[in-house]
Prior knowledge:
Layout: E1 6-12, E2 23-28, E3 39-54, H1 62-70, E4 75-82, H2 93-108, E5 115-119, H3 129-138, H4 148-157, E6 162-172, E7 175-185, E8 196-202, H5 208-221, E9 237-242, H6 256-277, E10 284-292, H7 295-307, H8 309-316, H9 322-331, E11 342-346, E12 351-356, E13 359-360, H10 365-372, E14 376-382, E15 388-395
Parallel strand pairs: 4-5, 8-9, 10-14
Antiparallel strand pairs: 1-6, 2-3, 3-4, 3-9, 6-7, 7-8, 10-15, 11-12, 11-14, 12-13
Amino acid sequence: MRKxxxxxxxxxxxxxxxxxxxxxxxxxxxxxxxxxxxxALLLADCRCATAAVYAEGDCxxxxxxxxxxxxxxxxxxxxxxxxxxxxxxxxxGEKLADKVCNLVEKRFVIRKEDILIASTGEVxxxxxxxxxxxGVQALxxxxxxxxxxxxxxxxxxxxxxxxxxxxxxxxxxxFPCKIGVLFKATAHVCPNMATTIIFLTTDVNISPEMLxxxxxxxxxxxxxxxxxxxxxxxxxxxxxxxxxxxxNCKIEYADTxxxxxxxxxxxxxxxxCKAIITGGDRKGLSCQVLGAKSKQVARELAKKIxxxxxxxxxxxxxxxxxxxxxxxxxxLNAKKDxxxxxxxxxxxxxxxxxxxxxKKFPQNVAMMQELLSEKEITIEIDLGEGNFRxxxxxxxx
Length: 397
């Protein structure tokens, strides 16, 4: 069988969530919000291999319960999502989500089991089926490839959310492949995936099983590393739909082609994380842990560091709370002997070492000011005792 090969470079392209051929998006106002779009739909022209990752924990939102049932066979054609008011802790929420899928099934003449559903917005307010009935009737006229994705973002984010859409081109062998992504997050973002709604589309030809495997792994290394304020939501969800139109050899095993697609997917989700932490007036804070003895240690430490308020406050005062970083190391039992530990703060343009060989270095104020003038700053921790690494994402302010 011919193998695909890959060009690992991701090239930004126009189109957003509708960049891959075969997808339409759009949104309308159905009255959930006082004004503006509040109901969105993503529609594929064929059944797509589809994967999902949901919020972890015992409490799962009503829309996710319905989506899990519909996605048992690994295929979907549509995603319907409302903004403004979350279908969460709402009496009869699961029945409402099921009825909304019935409306979409009838209006678009597609199987109910091929419809996924999500919901986001303010908690504690009622939702009414009448709004969805009005909105679903209006949606067909709203779907397009030009600005449908932008309207869908507005439907999800409202006035206080961080949202956008991105799209990239990469190659599998001689075949150009596309990935589009639409995302929404708020100030409440914490592992795992908290208060995020993320949809992806791709034209890569891949089986549902391999798509789920790649997606779960990519989310674990990216979205689950978000930690802005320690608050999570049971309605968090990430979906990816793959329609196979790129023409590459179908990925059905965890072989070289699978690995190359998985790498591209992880790169895209890393860019989403960086867009979330730097959205609006935010100044992004990343933590990169290197040289850990296990993947678990690297992940836990990185996520811990970006969530420590004392460390974030110290950066606002143009210094690094080295003691706070070291305390986190010992608290997680990540490192007892600090002689091999190296701590640095860096941006895309510069790097400043603040701890090495068991000693703290004086921190240059002018250098720190230069570093903090950037939109994103990274604390780099090299534990010097293994080959595992991880990256986590937060905000300074």
